[in-house]
């Protein structure tokens, strides 16, 4: 029959450890309350007076992430993360951590506590430097500049706009040249009295056109 070896870490920095064994079939049939009670009994008087709901128990999964246990389904998930103990037969191990509080401590409150401890032991100059580091870390920076990526459609439209502007400039130059020519023609008497030569004229009625 397969046996599970629980390696239970507890303490302020999880520097304490105790071992507990249970048959695999018993773990699969146990409820979370029964399992948590067995863990607390193994630890002994360290969490004396606390119920299973007043502590937080975590197990290490197959990705080395510690996952909290709070229900029977969580306990079944933990059974799937058992690891065989090398050089043994039908012996599996599961790493367990036990916290003294059922809810995790917020990171902000922890940082505030550390800052208060520093104020009590650091000299004024070093204290100002440490506080400036904390305020700099909590400063929100403006968002980054928008992306300068331009799609093929944007490039095509820009080229067309440039072509239209160039054509507009050509039309404006042509109009300016035409206006200058009109002004010169209206100001010059020779140009005003000059008639264009007649290249061909319709023959009078009743006359026969002679072939050349």
Report the radius of gyration as a whole number of Å: 46 Å
> Given the structure, what is the number of helices?
7
The total count of strands amounts to 6
> Which sheet architecture does the biggest sheet show?
6 strands, mixed
Helix proportion: 40-55%
Mean pLDDT: 76
Gross morphology is rod-shaped
Q: What gap, in angstroms, lies between the N and C termini?
A: 130 Å
What structural category arises from helix and sheet content? alpha+beta
Strand content: 15-25%
Q: What pattern of helices and strands is seen along the backbone?
A: EEHHEEHEEHHHH
Unreliable segments (pLDDT under 50, ≥5 consecutive)?
105-110
Detailed description of the structure:
This is PB1 domain-containing protein. Residues 192-212 are annotated as: Disordered. It comes from Desmophyllum pertusum. InterPro entries: PB1-like, PB1_dom. It holds the Pfam family PB1. This protein has 212 residues and is an alpha+beta fold. The chain is 46% helix and 17% strand. It is built from seven helices and six strands, in the order ββααββαββαααα. Strands 1, 2, 3, 4, 5 and 6 form a six-stranded mixed sheet that branches. The N and C termini lie far apart (130 Å). Mean pLDDT is 76; it is low at 105-110.
